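Entry 12.
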Amino acid sequence: MTERQGVPFYTGMRYYVTEKWGFAIWLPSDWYEFQMDKGHKGVIFSPHKDDTDTCLSVEKFTLKISIKDADIPILRKGFHDGVNALPGVEVEKFDESLSTTINFFEARFTYLDNEVRRKRWIRNVYWGNGQLVMIAQGKDTADFDYYEPMFFNTMYTTDIK
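Predicted 3D structure (tokens):
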């Protein structure tokens, strides 16, 4: 792949709303939508018609319990352990934001998927008994870096119902 110049070109934005799963996101209007496998409550979007190696996925979970402050350390540990368990992982950063109503755990990292080094940004959002898992991934580090402005817009304009 030759190196791209600049940032990706927006042809428009669309507000994707799913009452069924209880979230809404802003995303580029020309990205393609892919359904998750049966049993999942979310959706995958990609700038490529026939390839989801570069994508943004959003999935909502309803937990059996409501998250309390006392749960935060074990959630943090599980999140860190899960990321660190990936093959060939190189963590760029872990981050979090905690409040009385909503909690975020984030990680940016690269990992090996077979012999391909991919880059990901995962954002886990917890509120009450809800969890939203957002994953932005590039098929490689260059693709992630190219689409990062679009990933950023979507990750930070999520509306949770």
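Annotation: Helices lie at 72-84, 141-155. The mean pLDDT is 93.
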